[in-house]
UniProtKB/TrEMBL annotation, chain A:
This is Mitochondrial ribosomal protein S24. It comes from the Eukaryota. It is found in: Mitochondrion. GO terms for cellular component: mitochondrion; ribonucleoprotein complex; ribosome. The keyword Ribonucleoprotein applies.
Automatic annotation (TrEMBL), chain B:
Residues 20-116 form the Small ribosomal subunit protein uS10 domain. Belongs to the universal ribosomal protein uS10 family. This is Small ribosomal subunit protein uS10m. Component of the mitochondrial ribosome small subunit (28S) which comprises a 12S rRNA and about 30 distinct proteins.
């Protein structure tokens, strides 16, 4: 779905009106980025699912530090390939990393990176780590700002 | 307790008066679907189960918005914990183990569970009869 106001295409120019009116805006934004934090649990879900922040549960800080490291790791291991924020799910001992990936690299490179990151992270965190990737042709745009 | 073989033993099985399972989560939809699953599993095993919803708890924090000065501008965060309580009455130890194992293996991510078991035990032999009756019996025996 291309934006007719995209200055890179043959549509029109985004600079014709300043500030650009609703139809001339061009800045693609995904569903996650388009909604403010107060929409969590109403229109948005959670990017990281663990029990640390529940009432009477502990180790929230450890989970948060792990999350920060994992997101940086994913950003670095798949350079320019991540379409959206990485979703982290923790169930008992296991850690599931779910990511939407662009088709920038050939398939055999993706398979190698998946195996490499799973083994490395499992040895690092001493728990089974699984990576679930879904490829997408382009970044999924919700609206243009 | 995962066992592939059926074991038969002479020891009597432990009896539970009440099994109280408290499930905590941030998302009400996840809790609803998990409750449906747990109730379905209980019905399949022939366990009678009751579900009620304890009131939610909200923990609120008010922090300064800026890194330096601007005391009048703050940011508020809250953490909501929603509860669901599954009550099961009068269970045997084997049934309880099987049911809890199944339920716990299928806990969704971001959901915590607390289990409280109330066990039934027979009264110990030394307190079955009152002591004063035993003393009276001993006195009669010593007189006779």
């Amino acid at each position: 779905k291309t934006n007719p106001a995209d200055p890179r295409g043959s549509g029109g120019s985004a600079r014709a009106c300043s500030p650009p009116c609703r139809r001339c805006r061009f800045s693609p934004v995904s569903y996650e980025e388009a909604h403010a934090p107060h929409y969590i649990a109403h229109r948005k879900g959670w990017l990281s699912a663990h029990t640390g922040n529940l009432d009477g549960e502990a180790h929230a800080a450890e989970r948060t530090v792990e999350d920060v490291f994992l997101r940086k790791f994913m950003l670095g291991t798949f350079p320019g390939c991540l379409a959206d924020h990485v979703v982290l799910k923790r169930r008992a001992n296991q850690l599931d990393i779910c990511a939407l990936v662009l088709r920038q690299l050939p398939a055999h490179k993706f398979y190698f990176l998946v195996g490499y990151s799973e083994t490395l992270l499992s040895h690092f965190y001493k728990c089974p780590v699984r990576l679930h990737l879904q490829t997408v042709p382009a970044k999924v745009v919700y609206k243009y700002l | 307790f995962f066992c592939l073989f059926i074991t038969v033993s002479d020891e009597p099985d432990t009896l539970y008066k009440r099994l109280s399972i408290l499930v905590k989560a941030h998302d009400k939809a996840v809790l609803d679907s998990y409750e449906f699953f747990a109730v379905l599993a209980a019905k399949e095993l022939g366990i009678s189960i009751k579900v009620h919803e304890p009131p939610r708890k909200i923990e609120r924090l008010t922090l300064l918005k800026s890194v330096h000065i601007f005391k009048k501008h703050r940011v508020q965060y809250e953490m909501r914990t929603l509860y669901r309580c599954l009550e099961v009455k009068r269970l045997t130890g084997c049934t309880a183990n099987v049911y809890l194992e199944y339920i716990q293996r299928n806990l969704p991510e971001g959901v915590a569970m607390e289990v409280t078991k109330t066990q039934l035990q027979p009264l110990p032999e030394h307190i079955r009869e009152p002591i004063w009756e035993k003393e009276v019996k001993d006195k009669e025996e010593s007189k006779a």
